[in-house]
Design brief:
With about 290 residues, this protein is of the alpha/beta class. About 35% of the residues lie in helices and about 15% in strands. The longest helix has 19 residues, at about 25-45.
């Protein structure tokens, strides 16, 4: 049965900014980051005086190949991705957002500073997703939302979830995370997809242009509706560039149970191939 998810009433009280941590500054992460200032401006117009305070974490340096389909220039080669992008956004928009030039790990949120309300994961390995999952599901962690974006050559997905932790308790309508619906996406032992190519031509062959823009814009539009209206009827979507189809993931506990049951069956058969792939196979591109 389809229902609606309601934004926690305490999240935007008191004029404090919504703290957002973007993990990964590659194709999806850089596109998400460059869209967040528009959401920040919109929130202030909607009466949320604090808007957003954004942090970007990535330990990678800009390569020449990154300049092909990511928002980096030749002058950026050799510099840290997070630092380059945050400096650019702060200079243009007059913001004081923060760069963390390091890779995210399972203990990254164990600090004395206030943790993020929302983590946006834009990583491309199972191990990196596993690190995010481990961090946000600690018993004393207070992350309210985990938004995951991922893609392969011509398709991708985004899923907004509420990880089980101090902020989110077990209940029927708690938004299931991508790791709960598709647990193999965080299983580092299952192996990783090939790393991005050092060749610009091969990089474009492995991923078509504009996949990142479609996913990031759609995910940000979903977040905007949640923050403006306080409710959502869907918490993710799957996009296929070859068909042009965008299929939404509804806020539907019955659907979640079906997905989890189907995923468990696929897990037990070690990803056995059927003529009709499961949703999890579509998600991971395997």
């Amino acid at each position: 049965m389809i229902s609606e998810h309601a934004l926690p009433k305490s999240l935007l009280r008191g004029g404090q900014p919504l703290r957002v941590l973007v993990v990964g500054a590659g194709g999806n992460g850089s596109t998400v980051l460059l869209g967040l200032p528009y959401l920040h401006q919109a929130m202030k117009v909607w009466g949320h005086a604090g808007g957003l305070h954004v942090m970007l974490a990535d330990g990678d340096l800009v390569s020449e190949t990154n300049c092909v389909r990511q928002p980096f220039a030749s002058a950026d080669v050799g510099l840290n991705k997070a630092v380059v992008l945050i400096n650019r956004v702060n200079l243009f928009w007059g913001l004081r957002w923060q760069a963390h030039p390091e890779h995210f790990h399972k203990d990254s949120l164990r600090t004395n500073s206030a943790g993020p309300h929302l983590i946006i994961g834009c990583v491309d390995t199972r191990a990196a997703r596993q690190a995010i999952q481990s961090a946000v599901t600690r018993a004393n962690d207070s992350t309210i939302y985990w938004l995951d974006l991922g893609n392969n050559a011509s398709s991708g997905q985004y899923v907004l979830g509420q990880p089980l932790n101090a902020a989110n308790r077990r209940n029927a309508v708690r938004l299931r995370t991508v790791a709960e619906l598709y647990p193999e996406i965080t299983d580092a032992e299952a192996g990783e997809d090939p790393l991005p190519s050092c060749s610009a031509a091969e990089a474009l062959e492995r991923q078509e242009p504009f996949i990142n823009q479609v996913l990031a814009t759609s995910a940000l539009a979903m977040l905007a509706r949640l923050l403006r209206y306080g409710v959502l009827a869907h918490h993710g979507a799957f996009f296929n560039a070859s068909t042009g189809r965008l299929s939404v993931l509804g806020v539907d506990p019955d659907l979640w149970k079906k997905i989890q049951k189907r995923t468990r069956k696929d897990w037990l058969t070690r990803h056995g191939r059927d003529r009709n792939p499961t949703a999890s196979q579509i998600l991971t591109g395997r």
